């Protein structure tokens, strides 16, 4: 006989916090396996042991779950970069590019989420939810900017441009470098078409190095 999940309603504050955390963990695991785009709210609920109709006690939607995770990923990336740059000065462009690219590559969920945030996630949640996310992301950008300006000769405006550029590049290149199975099969059949699906980290590092080289001379 097919297994029927045993859904139990969380009643205490602690139980609700644990259930909320379980939903976030399930969303991470499913996105890591299948990609953010493919994950449904029903799958998240089932994996977390929550009836799909009960998810709204914790999150308004699938999009809100992934927006919460995006905020956490912003904070994680900013903290990692700040820790790596602490006490360093005059960091060469190539070293900074490798650091930024490497710490992004260590966060595949973040790279996958980056293009989804403006395209779908922010558009499908209440305004207050977007506001909370943007404030969290702004805190992360402030941490990143402080760490990078303290360890390089870049101005705060240049660093803000750098952060905007590298996150845009990372989001796009990650999707290209991790194609769905239909495209992966096509690339196997015709390798001429696979040129864009190159290694994510080296290409991102090269592009960021070029950007960093040009930023100090930009008007």
Automatic annotation (TrEMBL):
Stored Pfam families: TetR_C_34, TetR_N
UniProt keyword annotations, A-Z: DNA-binding
MF (Gene Ontology): DNA-binding transcription factor activity; transcription cis-regulatory region binding
Protein name, as recorded: Putative TetR-family transcriptional regulator
Keyword DNA-binding tagged: yes
Residue stretches making up the HTH tetR-type domain: 17-77
Residue ranges of DNA binding: 40-59
Organism listed in the record: Actinoplanes missouriensis (strain ATCC 14538 / DSM 43046 / CBS 188.64 / JCM 3121 / NBRC 102363 / NCIMB 12654 / NRRL B-3342 / UNCC 431)
Superkingdom per UniProt: Bacteria
Keyword Plastid: no
InterPro entries in alphabetical order: Homeodomain-like_sf (IPR009057), HTH-type_TetR-like_transc_reg (IPR050109), HTH_TetR (IPR001647), TetR_C_34 (IPR041483)
């Amino acid at each position: 006989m097919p297994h029927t999940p045993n859904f139990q309603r969380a009643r205490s504050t602690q139980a609700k916090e644990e259930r909320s955390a379980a939903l976030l963990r399930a969303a991470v695991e499913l996105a890591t396996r299948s990609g953010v785009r493919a994950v449904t709210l029903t799958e998240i609920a089932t994996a977390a042991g929550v009836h799909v109709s009960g998810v709204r006690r914790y999150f308004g939607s699938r999009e809100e779950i992934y927006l919460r995770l995006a905020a956490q990923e912003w904070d994680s990336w900013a903290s990692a970069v700040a820790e790596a740059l602490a006490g360093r000065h005059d960091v060469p462009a190539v070293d900074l590019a490798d650091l930024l690219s490497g710490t992004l590559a260590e966060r595949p969920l973040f790279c996958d989420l980056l293009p989804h945030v403006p395209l779908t996630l922010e558009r499908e949640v209440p305004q207050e939810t977007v506001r909370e996310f943007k404030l969290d992301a702004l805190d992360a950008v402030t941490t990143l900017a402080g760490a990078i300006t303290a360890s390089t000769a870049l101005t705060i405006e240049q660093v803000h441009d750098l952060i905007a550029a590298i996150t845009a590049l990372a989001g796009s290149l990650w999707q290209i470098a991790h194609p769905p199975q239909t495209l992966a099969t096509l690339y196997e059949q015709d390798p001429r078409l696979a040129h864009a699906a190159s290694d994510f980290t080296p290409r991102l590092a090269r592009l960021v190095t070029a950007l960093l080289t040009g930023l100090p001379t930009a008007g």
